[in-house]
Amino acid sequence: MGKYTRQQWLTLIVFAIADFCSAVCVSLQAPFYPMMAESKGATPTQYGFVFGVFELTVFIVSPIYGNYLNKIGPKFMFNAGIFTTATTCIMFGFLDRVNDTTAFIGLSFAIRIVEAMGNSGFLTASFSIIAKEFPENVGATFASLETCFGLGMIVGPTLGGALFELGGYTLPFVTLGGLLICAASLTYCILPSYSNEFKGESHSSGSMLSLIKIPAIAIAAYAIIASSISIGFLQATLEPHLRPLELSPFQLGLMFVLNGATYGLFAPLWGWLCDKVVNPRFVVIFGSVVVMSAFILIGPSPFLPIPTTLPLCIVALVLHGTGFGAELVATFTSAHRDAVAHGFPDDINTYGLVSGMWTSTFALGAFIGPSAAGALFDLIGFPWATVFVVALHLIVGASFSVFMCCSRKKPGSGLYTKIHESLANSDPEKAGLLTGKTGGAFTRSISDSSCVSTTSDSSQEYYVY
Known about the structure:
75% of the residues lie in helices and 3% in strands. By secondary structure, the chain is mainly alpha-helical. The chain has two domains: 6-406, Up-down Bundle (Growth Hormone, Chain: A), CATH 1.20.1250; 417-464, no CATH class.
């Protein structure tokens, strides 16, 4: 980090503030919106779709943002997105004035859709700028900023629950939405402009479909969907599941903090492991096993003859934060690396495609999660509904394990490091020692469709693995 430029430090600082404030606004409503919706006559299925429509909108618009990021401009998309998220958060706080059930649900849908359009632009632009600014530390940088998001997840439900007890439904949204507006103003003034850097880069010849056709990215996309399903599932059903324990709104807020806090705590570790130590796919497999364990306990699953207790739920939520954090960080790192390794140019257009894919698939799962959770909660109850999430993550672990066993290892397919031509020709063994890679050395030509291409000329590039 000591080698970071002034522009990189500014980018990190404003992203950290923006991620924190955005997470606060996203998470603050989970402890008390279900209660408010039920007081207006809404069912769990209906308010589950209110949570879900946000992510459905992100799923639809993220690929569009990803494809046109170069034309719109990452800074404009980032600032416009975060400002839209803030203003709609404030608007959501006045829904308690609406007493008609249909009008309450309809306005909830409308506001969440607009908020989702802003949030999608903010996320897609931020992921792309990360990949552009920190090409050698994508995983670690992404994970470090996700730590700030995790801290926001801690503050959001806790502060939201406290403000709800203090001043009712409107106060949390107005206060924390105003905080995000301040963050949006800060990013507008401080965030460097990238228009000159990206102006000369042509529109990407690739597409979201061609990206998903890569097998490694396809199973990574499924893992992202399964992971976000688990998050959305708890967002919509954790509060009614914990209702028999008779916790206060502030205590409920603390329960929603647990998985976010654990996620933020371990995210830098997963990023460092993916960048420097192990194949990201191993991290995904580990995360899937931990998430399965969490949902078996939090139900508890029907085949476990144990009652629902507060300590058991706490342990399960901590495990969940650990597991889905490993999955999300590792899949982002893996997808970016695999895209470049399969011939996509290492430029802002590819960053936009990968970011749009990650955001879109995450949103699809986050739509399915609360929507299916509300319906399953109504039909079969919480314990049996958790089996659905367990089965999804069993498929994640199995598919990644089978893929790793069946795929033939190729030079550069794992962790690779680019080296100077003179070092590669004179002493490949020394190059491996200097970079921490021991597999050997290899060269790739730009004309090779399977190469890791970072330049536009026809010269060869040299790597150790």
